[in-house]
């Protein structure tokens, strides 16, 4: 697998990575993110109410990440404005989140500007239909201590720089899966799958008291929308490593978690990860209105 060198120039529009030549790449992120300091924040994430077995914990945040020398994608501004309106925001409030407003922060090194977006729900289509609509899932926000940290900013612009997009909405998910002596935990509820993104980034933050064959990352190739059988990647990604993959060309899976030492850590094992997925219209913009309990306006 060739190394895709990050050749970011803050003074010119980025060049998009050629995805036809890209399957996956693992990167040691420990030089620009102190993942050890992040583990504690996973303890604060509440249980995911949509997984009835109770082994998953999830917090999410949304961002818009646009290069200063790239034109804004109009569909992104339109999409944000539409979901903001459905969230009961005034135009004045809504405009703060558009590309015409000042970004939340800017990376001088790469030229990327980042807007922190409201706490949108995860939802497949923008109009919620309670009878036939896709399920809307509401998750709390990732801790401000993380979102305001240099390490997190580095992570977000690393993802943007690696793929070299011009403008995108990025969903960031902090996810813990745990296991107990009496039950395993499933990192991928649906088995081998794709998520309909162009590409995905996953950072491993912590593996604690789980067996060596727990949370093994596996990829197989896609064949015209069907899963193939041959594993092209089959390894435990250790904490501090970041892996990017092409979600159109490979299917991914993480093996079940089992407790390593039944006496240790109260008989509980955990695996903490960060998942980042960039969205560009018209494809896959799974953003629903901000749940009332998260509205700040
Ligand atoms: Fe997935």
Describe this structure in words.
Helix content is 13%, strand content 31%. The chain is an alpha+beta fold and 297 residues long. Strand 3 (105-106) and strand 4 form a beta hairpin. The longest helix has 14 residues, at 150-163. The protein contains five helices and 13 strands. It is globular, with a radius of gyration of 19 Å. The structure holds fe (ii) ion.
The level of helicity is 10-25%
Spell out the helices and strands N to C. Answer: EHEHHEEEHHEEEEEEEE
Class by alpha and beta content:
alpha+beta
Low-pLDDT sequence parts = none
N/C terminus separation: 48 Å
Largest sheet: 8 strands, antiparallel
Rg on CA atoms, Å: 19 Å
User: What is the count of helical runs?
Assistant: 5
Number of strands: 13
Beta content: 25-35%
Summarize model confidence as the mean pLDDT. Answer: 94
Which term fits the overall shape?
globular
The small molecules bound here are:
fe (ii) ion
Describe the strand arrangement of the main beta sheet, using strand numbers. 1-10-7-12-6-2-4-3
In summary, what is this structure?
Helix content is 13%, strand content 31%.
Keywords:
13 strands, 5 helices, 8-stranded antiparallel sheet, binds fe (ii) ion, alpha+beta, globular, 3-stranded antiparallel sheet, 297 residues
How would you summarize the topology of this molecule?
Elements: E1 24-28, H1 39-42, E2 56-67, H2 74-86, H3 91-95, E3 105-106, E4 112-116, E5 121-122, H4 144-147, H5 150-163, E6 167-180, E7 199-208, E8 217-223, E9 226-235, E10 241-246, E11 250-254, E12 268-279, E13 287-288
Antiparallel strand pairs: 1-10, 2-4, 2-6, 3-4, 5-13, 6-12, 7-10, 7-12, 8-9, 8-11
This protein binds fe (ii) ion.
Fe (ii) ion binds at residues 193, 195, 252.
């Amino acid at each position: 697998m060739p190394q895709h060198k990050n050749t970011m120039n803050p003074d010119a529009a980025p060049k998009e990575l050629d995805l036809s030549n890209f399957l996956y790449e693992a990167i040691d992120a420990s030089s620009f993110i102190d993942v050890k300091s992040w583990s504690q924040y996973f303890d604060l994430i509440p249980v995911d109410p949509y997984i009835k077995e109770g082994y998953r914990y999830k917090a999410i945040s949304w961002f818009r990440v646009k290069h200063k020398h790239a034109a804004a994608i109009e569909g992104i501004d339109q999409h944000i404005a539409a979901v903001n309106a459905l969230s009961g925001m005034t135009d004045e409030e809504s405009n703060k989140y558009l590309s015409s407003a000042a970004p939340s922060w800017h990376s001088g090194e790469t030229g990327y500007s980042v807007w922190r977006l409201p706490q949108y729900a995860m939802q497949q289509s923008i109009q919620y239909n309670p009878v036939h609509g896709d399920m809307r899932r509401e998750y709390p926000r990732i801790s401000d201590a993380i979102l305001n940290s240099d390490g997190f900013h580095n992570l977000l612009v690393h993802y943007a720089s690696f793929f070299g997009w011009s403008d995108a909405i990025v969903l960031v998910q902090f996810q813990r899966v745990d296991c107990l002596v009496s039950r395993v935990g499933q990192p991928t509820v649906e088995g081998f799958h794709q998520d309909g993104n162009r590409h995905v980034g996953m950072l491993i933050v912590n593996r604690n008291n789980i067996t060596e064959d727990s949370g093994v990352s596996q990829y197989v190739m896609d064949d015209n929308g069907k899963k193939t059988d041959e594993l092209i990647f089959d390894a435990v990604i250790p904490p501090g490593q970041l892996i990017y993959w092409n979600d159109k060309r490979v299917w991914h899976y993480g093996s079940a978690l089992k407790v390593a030492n039944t006496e240790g850590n109260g008989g509980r094992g955990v695996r903490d990860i960060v998942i980042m997925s960039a969205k560009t219209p018209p494809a896959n913009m799974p953003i629903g209105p901000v749940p009332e309990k998260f509205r700040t306006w």
